[in-house]
Design goal:
Shape: elongated
Number of strands: 10
Strand content: 15-25%
Low-confidence stretches: none
Helix content: 25-40%
CATH topology of the largest domain: Homing Intron 3 (I-Ppo) Encoded Endonuclease, Chain A
Radius of gyration: 24 Å
Distance between the termini: 41 Å
Structural class: alpha+beta
Largest sheet: 3 strands, antiparallel
Strand order of the largest sheet: 1-2-3
């Protein structure tokens, strides 16, 4: 694929983004406070991984104000336009670290959640950091729900009765 560059919306004349998911600053002249002109050569920016989500971000600076911006939002706004109301930028089958325009589209939070399940990046079930029950526990509870009480299961698995009841009735682990 041939790399195509467009201006970053809101940073025209300062930064550009490519259809391959790269961001660069552009060559420009800067007038300092003392009136001297300083020439700044453009370069491709280093992308860092957001510490909370698996998403790449870059630092953009304009008029002395620096902002961390996620790369997928820059690519989507430049190449797909502003998102329609209620839609967000979603990643395709190449995953959340691929910011090529061919891997991005506007969708709902629901489609984004389904994509996470499809790609294996959802944190549901045993991948969740607060999980107390395992998939095996939930299946055992549901198969034997008549033979043992919620209290008995709770004591056996060292969880609350509420956790057992929610798993048994499909309020949690609903995909099983």
């Amino acid at each position: 694929m041939v790399e195509e560059w467009l201006d970053v919306i809101g940073y025209e004349g300062f930064y550009q983004v490519s259809n391959l998911g790269r961001v660069r600053s552009v060559d420009r002249s800067i007038v300092r406070k003392n009136g001297k002109i300083f020439y700044k050569k453009g370069r491709v920016l280093k992308q860092t991984l957001d510490s909370h989500y698996p998403r790449f971000q870059v630092s953009l600076c304009k008029n002395g104000v620096e902002n961390l911006v996620r790369v997928h939002t820059l690519v989507a706004s430049a190449f797909l336009g502003s998102p329609p109301k209620g839609l967000i930028v979603c990643h395709g089958t190449k995953g959340s670290l691929c910011n090529e325009i061919a891997n991005l589209y506007y969708g709902t939070h629901e489609t984004n959640s389904k994509d996470k399940v499809r790609d294996g990046t959802s944190n549901r079930g045993e991948k969740h950091h607060k999980v107390k029950l395992t998939e095996k526990d939930v299946i055992a509870i549901r198969v034997n729900k008549e033979s043992l009480s919620d209290q008995c299961w709770a004591e056996r698995l060292n969880v609350s009765r509420r956790a057992v009841n929610a798993a048994k009735n499909g309020q949690t682990w609903s995909w099983l």
